[in-house]
Amino acid sequence: MTSFSAVSSISECAMFDHLGMTGWNMSAEDDFAALVEKRLTDAEEKTGHIFSDLRKMIREKGAAQAAQSLLSPSSTGSFPYGFKILAANNLLSHSMEQAAIDSVASGLFTEDQLTNASARLTLAKMLGLGG
User: Fold this and answer.
1) CA-CA distance, 65 to 14, in Å (whole number)?
2) Rounded CA gap, 23 and 1, in Å?
3) Residues 6 or more apart whose Cβ sits within 8 Å of residue 2
4) Above 70 in pLDDT, residue 22?
5) 24 pLDDT exceeds 80?
6) Cβ-Cβ contacts under 8 Å for 115 (sequence gap 6 or more)
């Protein structure tokens, strides 16, 4: 069994408080969507790339279902274009894979999905993508 730990940064918690989005009145899906939006916006600012395909998927499915699709067993071993951009800019910490791992306590993701997320991040690092 693979073990994952939830990580929450002070800045993310402060952002939730600032926006009036404390964990007390948000669902796990809302929490995850806020985390993804923050990281996606930050990645766009840092890379100059607009992750339009991912944003479209999030609009259509919601952040949690978009991540679940990206972490499906059929996608293991492949690197989506946006993931490669994040890797090239040393921003794998902003990936949907990392967001899912950081949200392990939410119960939104299966152990298989979390394992796939971890495997993709590990493989990317082994291949020298994203330092």
Assistant:
1) 25
2) 28
3) 111, 114, 115, 118
4) no
5) no
6) 2
